[in-house]
Structure formats: structure tokens, C-alpha cells
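Please fill in the sequence for the structure shown.

STRUCTURE ENCODING:
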């Protein structure tokens, strides 16, 4: 059903300067507007939402999804129980087992009459156009690609030739079923986000959400779905199915028979999912707000008024009274961020930041830029932690290793143990200035206490704490196998990775 489309944009730097020949996608094309279906009060998911919120019907209800399989199982369960509509918005989708299973279940939902709208950002979605075209031709399914690069000619050349727009990406992630229950967070659709990849995992975080907040998520989806940058798939690909419809269906059926059915069963039968089905999961209740960048941000000159999500997060941090715990995969605070954190520290606010180490960071250039900020952060008293590459080793019952390495991908923070912020924004220039983002703000002392307390308890077992020695040099401290370990250079990173990080310091910080 899916094949990989090559999108190595970096080869453009090896091409001759023939950018004048690049092709672009016209944004002036027929598009049928559509909006969320609101008449869903009689659905089973509406009844589940009402029952889940019965204890405090005037509040929104939430449950954190920190385990990948739980997050995947929740999405699959919502697809199974949807009766009217499914809206899914993602930065990327891959042609792997996670993408296959999710697409197959979306088709099953469409075949029973559920309207499916799938909105994918273009550049890092590696499902090929033929596979998406096949999905798009299923009755009740519509696929749109956000801010696409032209398929005419060489993809990389088209990207470079239209860099000013192509560089601006939709980073939002949301999944909505029957306008009754939504999943908001940092996960994309690929095996590494859902504990389905044995070689490693992107440790991430989602929030299962029910109540009036879901209408806000649906409204946000509609804004992006109906925006001029959301291009119907049929505009991009003239050849339906690439002429290989039967081959693709047969391929998908073989893949599902080989692995998909077992992955589906594994995901919907986790302990948490069984508790959900039994009605034994008590949610956290909160007053909440969804904050979303306007999609017009991607067509506008970079300016503070377009940084809606980043601005509200900065304001929330500035209002902190006692403690902030931050998880971010990529940390490039720039001078404005340093000034904000320093002002918080001067007021006595405890600041704990967990980010990736060089060994766990999947974008070496980002780490190269971040490295220059470590010493100023430590000097002002920030408690800075970097993820250990071996922290995700999980031992199977037979003693074998199921998971070898992690990459921190979670984006969120807890302020004063009551304000929880979860969403798609990384603390780097790309998220703040260039891409569009969304964030969920929850005012819940109960959830805030749990998340902050659990985080501060577990961080030392999976991360190095950075400190300055008496000569002002950075050292990395951890307890490994019961022993205190002190490293004086980037821990667990290969010699080549360190050389690469040094070389990539040349990358422009404002593009990272």
C-alpha cells in the first residue's frame, strides 16, 4: 500500500545553480470546504465521554499517554469506535507497520460510513503519493497535503527553489474521533513513536482529552484543513494509484497478515487499554485552553505577533512562582530565552530542564547549537539533564533486550505543580519562528503534582545531570548499575558523532 518517496533535500547543495527551472504548486485550485460534524451527541464515544466526565461534568477530562503502545492503542480504539468522523493532522507519516495498521483501520472505518479527513505535512511524510492516492480514492476518505512541494521534475530542486515557503512547515499533531475525544501531543505516525521499533524509541507524550476542549481541537483542524496551503491530494498526483491499485492492496493484505494483526492486538490489549474498556480509568479534570498558531504564520514574515503558542508559553513561564519542570527534545534558548530563565532564577524559581544528549539527539546540528548554551544555563542555576542513550533498555522475560536506545521527543512542562502544558512546540527557533505549532494548557493541581513528582523521581535514572567543576568545565553525572559515574566529555557519543557535532556548528542557528 505504501512506498517510500525520496525527499533528500540536502542534495540540493550539490546541484548546479539552476533554481530558475524549479516547479511550484499552485495554491489557486478547486477545493471543497468542509467542517467538523457536530451532531455526534448520540454516538458511543459521546456516551463514553459523558460517563468519563460524570464526576465533574463542567470540566474537561484528560489522561496522559506516556507509553507508546498505549498511545497507539488509544488511536486504534478511537478508530474502531468512531461512528461519524475521524480527523487526523500530523507532521509526518511513514510507510512502516504503524502507518500500515493505522491506514488499514481508517479504511475499515470509512467502509462502515465514517468520514475520514487526513491532513499531512509534506516534507517529512515518506508515504508515497501512490499509496496516499489509493487511500484518497476510498469512499468517505479525503487526504490533503499541507504546503506541498511540486512533484514535477526534481523534488529537491523544487524545494530549494521555493525555499522561502517550503521551509515553513505544519508541525501540529491532533487526532479527533466523532468530535468527542481527541489525542493531542508530540507523536507522529511511525513505529519509533509507539514502541514498535526494537532498535530504539522516541520517548514522547500525548494527552487523551474529552469535553468541550475537543470542539476547540476540531476548530483548529478545520482552520488548517480549509487553508489555502492544504492542497487536495488529487491536485498533486494525476495518476490514480500509480496504476498499481491491485498490487498495493495485495501488498497491504500481506503486510497485515504478517505483522499488522499482531501489532493491532498488542496495542489494544495493553494494561491501560484493558482498564479503559472496563471503565476503570479515572481521568484528571481541569480547566483547559488550546492555543494554536494561525496557519497564516507560514505565509507571513517572521514576527512576534505570529508566535502565538511560543508567546503564551513564555508568558506562563514568566508567571511561575516556585518551580518549572521542562521536557524538550531540542533546546536553543537564544538570548531572549536566557534572559527569561535568568529573571525566573533571580525570583527564586527552581528550573529543571531535560533534553537530549549528543548520543540521543537525532539532529546533530541542533545539539551543536544547544551546546553553547549549557554553561550559561548552569551558571544561573538551572538544573540541566541530558538523556542517556542506554536508558531505554527494557529486559524481556527471557532476558533479551527489547529496546536498545531512546531519543527524547516529548515536549511539555509543569509550572508550579498545577499548570501542565503539552503539545508540539520544541524550544528552538524552528518551532518558535518558522513552523506552526499547538499546545494544550491544563490547570490541574492533581495532574501537575503527579507529573512533576514522577518526573523529578525518575529523571536521575535515565539522564545525566550536568554540573560545572571548579575550573568551570562541564561534567556529566549519573548513577549506573549502582555506581556514581562522572564523564568529562559528551557521554556515550562516538568519536565520529563528536567530530560531526563540532563541524555542524556552522549551521545557521535561526534555521534549527
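FILLED IN BY: designer on duty
SEQUENCE:
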Amino acid at each position: 500500500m505504501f512506498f517510500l518517496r525520496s525527499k533528500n533535500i540536502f542534495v540540493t547543495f550539490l546541484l548546479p545553480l539552476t533554481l530558475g527551472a524549479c516547479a511550484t504548486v499552485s495554491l489557486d485550485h478547486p477545493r471543497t470546504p468542509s467542517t467538523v460534524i457536530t451532531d455526534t451527541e448520540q454516538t458511543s464515544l459521546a456516551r463514553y465521554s459523558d460517563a468519563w466526565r460524570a464526576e465533574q461534568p463542567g470540566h474537561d477530562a484528560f489522561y496522559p499517554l506516556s507509553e507508546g503502545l498505549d498511545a497507539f492503542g488509544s488511536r486504534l480504539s478511537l478508530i474502531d469506535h468512531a461512528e461519524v468522523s475521524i480527523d487526523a493532522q500530523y507532521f509526518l507519516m511513514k510507510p512502516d507497520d504503524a502507518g500500515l495498521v493505522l491506514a488499514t483501520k481508517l479504511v475499515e472505518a470509512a467502509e462502515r460510513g465514517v468520514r475520514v479527513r487526513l491532513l499531512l505535512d509534506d516534507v517529512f511524510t515518506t508515504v508515497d503519493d501512490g499509496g496516499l492516492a489509493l487511500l484518497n480514492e476510498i469512499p468517505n476518505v479525503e487526504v490533503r497535503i499541507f504546503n506541498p512541494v511540486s512533484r514535477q521534475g526534481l523534488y529537491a530542486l523544487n524545494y530549494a527553489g521555493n525555499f522561502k515557503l517550503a521551509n515553513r512547515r505544519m508541525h501540529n499533531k491532533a487526532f479527533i474521533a466523532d468530535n468527542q475525544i481527541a489525542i493531542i501531543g508530540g507523536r507522529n505516525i511511525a513505529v519509533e513513536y509507539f514502541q514498535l521499533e526494537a532498535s530504539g524509541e522516541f520517548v514522547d507524550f500525548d494527552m487523551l482529552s474529552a469535553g468541550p476542549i475537543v470542539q476547540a481541537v476540531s476548530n483548529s483542524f478545520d482552520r488548517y484543513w480549509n487553508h489555502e496551503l492544504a492542497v487536495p491530494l488529487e491536485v498533486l498526483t494525476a495518476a490514480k494509484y500509480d496504476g498499481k491499485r491491485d498490487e498495493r492492496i495485495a501488498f497491504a493484505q500481506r503486510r497485515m497478515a504478517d505483522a499488522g494483526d499482531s501489532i493491532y492486538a498488542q496495542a489494544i490489549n495493553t494494561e491501560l487499554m484493558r482498564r479503559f474498556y472496563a471503565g476503570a480509568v479515572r481521568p484528571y479534570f481541569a480547566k483547559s485552553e488550546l492555543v494554536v498558531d494561525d496557519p497564516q504564520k507560514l505565509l507571513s514574515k517572521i514576527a512576534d505577533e505570529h508566535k502565538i503558542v511560543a508567546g503564551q508559553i513564555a508568558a506562563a513561564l514568566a508567571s511561575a512562582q516556585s518551580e518549572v519542570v521542562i521536557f524538550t527534545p531540542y533546546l536553543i534558548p537564544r538570548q531572549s530565552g536566557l534572559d527569561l530563565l535568568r529573571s525566573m532564577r533571580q525570583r527564586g524559581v527552581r528550573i529543571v530542564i531535560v533534553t537530549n544528549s549528543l548520543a540521543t539527539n537525532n539532529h546533530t546540528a541542533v545539539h551543536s547549537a544547544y551546546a553553547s548554551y549549557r554553561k550559561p544555563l548552569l551558571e544561573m542555576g538551572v538544573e540541566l539533564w541530558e538523556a542517556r542513550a542506554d536508558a531505554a533498555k527494557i529486559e524481556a522475560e527471557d532476558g533479551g533486550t527489547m529496546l536498545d536506545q531512546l531519543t527524547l521527543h516529548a515536549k511539555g512542562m509543569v509550572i508550579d505543580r498545577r499548570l501542565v502544558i503539552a503539545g508540539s512546540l520544541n524550544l528552538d527557533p524552528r518551532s518558535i519562528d518558522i513552523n506552526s505549532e499547538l499546545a494544550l494548557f491544563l490547570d490541574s493541581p492533581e495532574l501537575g503534582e503527579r507529573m512533576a513528582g514522577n518526573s523529578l523521581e525518575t529523571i536521575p535514572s535515565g539522564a545525566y545531570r550536568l554540573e560545572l567543576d571548579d575550573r568551570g568545565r562541564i561534567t556529566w553525572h549519573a548513577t549506573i548499575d549502582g555506581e556514581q559515574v562522572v564523564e568529562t566529555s559528551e557521554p556515550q557519543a562516538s568519536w565520529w558523532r563528536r567530530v560531526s557535532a563540532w563541524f555542524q556548528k556552522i549551521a545557521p542557528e535561526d534555521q534549527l
